[in-house]
Specification:
Layout (H helix, E strand, L loop, with lengths): L1 H8 L3 H10 L4 H28 L5 H29 L2 H24 L3 H24 L1 H4 L5 H29 L2 H19 L18 H14 L1 H32 L3 H26 L8 H20 L10 H5 L2 H31 L5 H27 L7 H27 L1
Membrane topology: Multi-pass membrane protein
Keywords: Cell membrane, Membrane, Transmembrane, Transmembrane helix, Transport
Pfam families: MFS_1
Length: about 450
């Protein structure tokens, strides 16, 4: 195995990235997960924009927050079940079934949009959350079945880059569909996305059952508990999983704070908010692909602490840059924002933070996949997803409390504080992850 890794380390990374996108082993999974993530964010943002601009709900804020909670809840409860199902069944066949079910969920979303029905749209969003929770362990657990070990970093880099680009495009499409298109056109788009996702899943190669004797536990709470225990049993696996979960929490909290900072401190409108989201998605893509280029086929964890330091630095600078700014009184457009020194600084910090994040998470998740036992791989990924969801929920709730009137911390202070905490995360991964890997 070591000989293969050493030989792969000398291979050119860019041809490998391009080659993977052309191969039957990887391309169908790539496009299936791209359309799936696009679909999730399309429906979620369509619902948010529908609440804000078409229904004119007085309690828009809580209703939008409820949408996030409805989508995240299944990941906390069903990731363990998804991991067990993925190990007990052929992952490719299970993917086909889930993506066919997604078509039915899209029908509910389309009817909900047609009737402007919040209950139907919430139902569709919950259905998408369930499918996402069950699909998560599959899409990461199947990669080592489809790719060689020296291709894993490149495969994960492409998946992470595509995920954030799909999130960005889905958010834009969802917003435009709710406020700028006819219901008929949006319904056709909803069905086209679901059909494209299902069609891509049909070409994913069969992998066989990793654990054919495994009996799936229908008690989701017991399976969640058991998977967390399994992840914690291996100290190295646990430390990597904690680091990955920290990344997702950092990203979720940052994406909840930055739009408020831009609106309140610079007066940036929807166009500016969209541009900053584009910088974030672009940064994640660059960082993820850079991780593959640096690794050259190896699973290289040494740069991870440096990436955490980069995340810390950009977050601290983002907080310091906006802390003393007065509250904006007028709305500005993209050219005005990017022609100002503070606009360029914010854009640079957001892109730098996202790039560092891609460099941070890709090697860590690849190491988890590569070192997990084959018969347990999907369940391990499910356990990691449970941790991710728990970190995100805890981080967002704590942020809400710190933003509340009773505490009153401003968004720039919270961004800087998150940066300081990332200094601790850098020390943690250096001590528990990269040093042990070396």
């Amino acid at each position: 195995m070591k000989t293969n890794v050493d030989r792969a380390a000398g291979s050119a990374p860019l041809p490998m990235l391009i080659g993977l996108l052309r191969t039957r082993r990887f391309a169908p999974l790539f496009w299936c997960q791209f359309f799936s993530v696009f679909n999730d964010n399309f429906v979620r943002n369509m619902l948010a924009m529908l609440i804000l601009f078409r229904l004119g709900e007085a309690d828009a804020g809580p209703l939008i927050t409820l949408a996030v909670g409805i989508f995240m809840l299944p990941s906390l409860c069903l990731s363990g079940l998804g991991g067990e199902m993925a190990d007990a069944q052929d992952k490719a066949r299970l993917t086909k079934r889930l993506k066919f079910a997604e078509i039915l969920v899209q029908v509910i979303a389309a009817i909900g949009l047609w009737q402007a029905s919040l209950p139907l749209l919430y139902t569709a969003l919950f259905g998408l959350g369930v499918i996402s929770a069950l699909f998560g362990p599959i899409k990461y657990g199947i990669l080592p079945d489809l790719l060689e070990r020296h291709e894993l970093v490149a495969g994960n880099a492409l998946v992470e880059a595509a995920t954030f680009i799909a999130i960005f495009l889905g958010l834009i499409a969802g917003g435009l569909s709710a406020v700028g298109r006819t219901p008929e056109g949006t319904m056709a788009q909803l069905m086209a996305i679901a059909l494209a996702c299902w069609a891509a899943s049909l070409f994913i190669p069969l992998t066989g059952r990793a654990a054919p004797d495994l009996r799936v536990n229908p008690n989701v709470f017991a399976s969640t508990r058991d998977l967390l225990r399994e992840v914690k049993r291996e100290p190295c696996l646990w430390s990597r999983s904690m680091a990955v979960s920290w990344f997702w929490m950092t990203g979720a909290v940052t994406l909840s704070l930055v739009p408020v900072v831009i609106r309140n401190k610079t007066g940036g409108g929807i166009g500016v908010e969209t541009a900053i989201s584009a910088f974030f998605a672009l940064g994640i893509g660059i960082g993820s692909l850079a991780a593959a280029i640096i690794a050259r086929g190896r699973i290289l964890l040494a740069p991870v602490p440096l990436a955490a330091l980069g995340m810390a630095g950009f977050l601290i600078d983002l907080g310091l840059a906006t802390w003393s700014l007065p509250t904006a009184t007028t709305e500005i457009d993209i050219p005005t924002f990017l022609s100002s020194a503070i606009g360029v600084r914010i854009a640079f910090d957001v892109a730098g933070l996202a790039t560092a994040g891609g460099l941070f998470v890709v090697p860590l998740f690849t190491a988890i996949q590569a070192d997990a036992a084959k018969h347990m791989r999907a369940r391990i990924v499910g356990g990691v997803n449970i941790l991710n969801s728990a970190f995100i929920v805890a981080g967002v709730l704590l942020t809400v409390v710190l933003q509340s009137k009773s505490v009153g911390l401003s968004e720039p202070i919270l961004l800087a504080a998150l940066g300081v905490l990332n200094l601790g995360a850098a020390f943690y991964v250096w001590k528990t992850v990269s040093r042990k890997a070396d």
